[in-house]
Backbone:
């Protein structure tokens, strides 16, 4: 149990540090900033406490907001996906929702894809809606959401495949 | 108490989510000028909309009071109108009029002898044989009174005959109802020698104890001059909609008793 906790803690810190040091400065074409830290909330085990997940989302979002000066946009988007995660899991995996490693193996690939895409899309749409905070730039919000979601998805998918092989 | 704690524990994730969201939005509101102005705009829009909505509801519930205020206001205007008219036609009889308002509590238009009941009686200053009008024109005459209620013989009553004149030519006739159409009255006793046309206004003639001169009754919609008796057969569309009457003014002619005494002598 302690070993698993240390492993999870290490995983969390390494993802957060790589987000802060690498991905936050990505800024490809001045549009793309992948939110790779979402992998923490995607791979969070279903057997773990859900209340802890919301607090974890809050702290993670807060740290990233402080580093990127986004004043709470990441925090709100992150706690929202943490709160909705249970429902998204049920919608994506159906009866297999309780499998401990459902997010990375032992389930249909289409279920996993749905789960990944839903988490990333919901997060990105909330985040960019808050960043622009203007209905008149709805097209821009869609565009940023779509592009960033695609890039984030690719990185997270590759990372999750690497983790599952390990 | 235990059940309350249990339900809170059951919904703890939602409560925590809401609290953390509020903290986040507070951070956005205080630190980011874009979000500050955006939230201010939204708050202004929402408060404006909710104010309009609540004012709609309030105004709906205040309709009865507003209606009462309007009736009172109308009463004052009527009094001023009568004073003005009396000065114009140089008759002091109209100065002896006083008005009283009342609400209709019972009304019928589908009988041949229709009666209206109002919510004021002797205690409210209503007596028998007073004229009853609305802003649009004549309604009827008080038939009987109790302490708190009074009944009115409506214009839509075949027993009632009201003295009337053609407004333009001052030819005297009388208004009756034939019991058929609630919107149409008959103007009788107008000789064929009089000139009239469709649309002419009919007003009270002033030659009765009930109504002063000049209160509107209706307008001519049709007439027939082929009668062998030497009088027109005239249809008059009544100005008042008797099916939707809600409040009326009761006229009191203070000089009635004096005139009656004179007639008896």
Residues:
């Amino acid at each position: 149990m302690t070993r698993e906790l240390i492993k999870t803690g290490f995983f969390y810190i390494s993802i957060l540090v790589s987000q802060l040091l690498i991905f936050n400065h990505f800024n490809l074409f001045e549009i793309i900033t992948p939110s790779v830290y979402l992998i923490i909330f995607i791979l969070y085990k279903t057997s773990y406490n859900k209340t802890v997940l919301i607090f974890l989302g809050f702290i993670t979002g807060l740290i990233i907001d402080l580093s990127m000066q986004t004043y709470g946009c990441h925090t709100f988007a992150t706690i929202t996906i943490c709160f909705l995660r249970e429902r998204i899991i049920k919608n994506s995996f159906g009866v297999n929702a309780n499998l401990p490693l459902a997010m990375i193996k032992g389930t249909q690939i289409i279920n996993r894809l749905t789960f990944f895409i839903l988490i990333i899309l919901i997060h990105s749409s909330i985040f960019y809606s808050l960043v622009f905070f203007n209905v008149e730039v709805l097209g821009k919000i869609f565009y940023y959401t779509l592009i960033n979601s695609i890039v984030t998805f690719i990185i997270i998918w590759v990372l999750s495949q690497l983790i599952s092989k390990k | 108490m235990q059940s309350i704690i249990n339900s809170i524990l059951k919904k703890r994730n939602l409560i925590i989510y809401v609290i953390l969201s509020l903290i986040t939005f507070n951070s956005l509101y205080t630190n980011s000028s874009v979000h500050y102005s955006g939230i201010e705009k939204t708050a202004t829009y929402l408060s404006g909309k909710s104010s309009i909505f609540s004012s709609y509801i309030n105004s709906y519930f205040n309709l009865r009071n507003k209606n009462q205020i309007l009736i009172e206001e109308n009463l004052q205007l009527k009094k001023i109108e009568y004073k003005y008219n009396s000065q114009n036609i140089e008759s002091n009889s109209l100065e002896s009029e006083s008005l009283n308002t009342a609400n209709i509590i019972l009304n019928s238009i589908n009988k041949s002898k229709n009666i209206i009941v109002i919510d004021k009686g002797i205690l409210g200053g209503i007596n028998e044989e007073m004229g009853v009008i609305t802003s649009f024109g004549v309604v009827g005459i008080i038939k009987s009174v109790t302490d708190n209620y009074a009944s009115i013989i409506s214009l839509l009553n075949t027993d009632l005959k009201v003295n009337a004149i053609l407004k333009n030519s001052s030819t005297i006739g009388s208004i009756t109802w034939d019991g058929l159409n609630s919107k149409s009255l008959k103007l009788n006793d107008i000789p064929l020698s009089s000139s009239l046309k469709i649309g002419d206004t009919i007003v009270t003639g002033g030659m009765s104890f009930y109504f002063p001169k000049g209160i509107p009754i209706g307008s001519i919609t049709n007439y027939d001059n082929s009668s062998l008796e030497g009088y027109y057969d005239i249809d008059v569309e009544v100005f008042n909609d008797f099916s939707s009457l809600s409040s009326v003014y009761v006229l009191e002619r203070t000089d009635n008793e004096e005139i009656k005494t004179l007639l008896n002598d």
Remarks:
- Chain A has a mean pLDDT of 82.
- Chain A touches chain B at residues 50-51, 54-55, 58, 61, 65, 71-73, 75-76, 79-80, 82-83, 130, 133-134 (CB under 8 Å).
- Chain A has six helices and no strands.
- Residues 2-84+96-165 of chain A form one domain.
